[in-house]
Design a protein that fits this description.
CATH superfamily of the largest domain: Response regulator
Helix content: 40-55%
Order of helices and strands: EHEHEHEHEHEHHHHHH
Number of strands: 6
Strand order of the largest sheet: 2-1-3-4-5-6
CATH class of the largest domain: Alpha Beta
Radius of gyration: 18 Å
Distance between the termini: 62 Å
Mean pLDDT: 87
Largest sheet: 6 strands, parallel
CATH architecture of the largest domain: 3-Layer(aba) Sandwich
Low-confidence stretches: 214-223
Number of domains: 2
Number of helices: 11
Shape: globular
CATH topology of the largest domain: Rossmann fold
């Protein structure tokens, strides 16, 4: 008797990337794509209507990002099985994703077959972590450095990511569907927990932790 196909929801803001996922998964028997979403809001709605076995979720998306989307879906369905598939291989992103409720974490630099095996693992209730992220998590534990990032909730980490992306308080409030005052309060709490007093210090903190790349110079940009 053949096993029931694993029903997958793809969440990524790039249509070409989603096409790549779909083509890859279609080559493997027992995996079926039941929906695609380009942002967190549509991912949440599609999750409710399609009830997939596994969600493949990117982290970096316009508006509400993947970590917040994971937490949102898990509030609706505590048994939701979500696999992060992202370009971010660092420990900070992975830890926050798991804290939000992810069951797997694979980087986009991983071999394609690793994504497929991770989908199967997560569908069967196992944790899946790619070697790159597993090494980063191990190194983070060995170093044992306390930076303040562990103090941030998944929602605060998501807002921190938005601040690093130069989003304004109004943009953050709109993306998360909260009041401007609430967004400002989160902003203040993040600075307090990270031990910084200004947004410039927040950006430098992000640079030191590898959460944001260095700003390109005019020469680097080719202007």
């Amino acid at each position: 008797m053949s096993r029931k196909a694993i029903r997958v929801l793809l969440v990524d803001d790039h249509a070409v990337v989603r096409e790549g996922y779909r083509t890859l998964l279609a080559k493997h028997e027992g995996v079926s794509v039941v929906g695609e979403a380009a942002n967190a809001a549509s991912a949440y709605q599609l999750y409710k209507t399609t009830q997939p076995d596994v969600v493949i979720m990117d982290i970096s998306m316009p508006g509400r990002g993947g970590i917040d989307a994971i937490e949102h879906i898990r509030r609706f369905d505590p048994l939701a099985r979500i696999l992060v598939f992202t370009m971010h291989g660092g420990a900070a992103y992975a830890l926050q994703a798991f804290r939000a409720g992810a069951r797997g974490y694979v980087t986009k630099s991983s071999p394609p077959d690793l994504l497929v095996s991770a989908v199967r693992d997560v569908a069967e209730g196992r944790i899946a972590i790619c070697p790159e992220t597993s090494e980063a998590l191990a190194l983070d534990r060995v170093r044992g450095e306390k930076t303040g990032l562990d103090e941030l909730s998944p929602r605060e980490f998501e807002i921190f990511r938005m601040i690093l992306d130069a989003r304004s308080t109004d943009e953050i409030a709109a993306a998360l569907n909260v009041s401007r005052k609430t967004a400002a309060n989160y902003h203040y709490s993040i600075k307090s927990k990270l031990g910084v007093s200004s947004d410039i210090e927040l950006v430098y903190f992000g640079l030191r932790q590898g959460l944001v790349g260095p700003v390109a110079t005019v020469t680097d940009a080719g202007l």
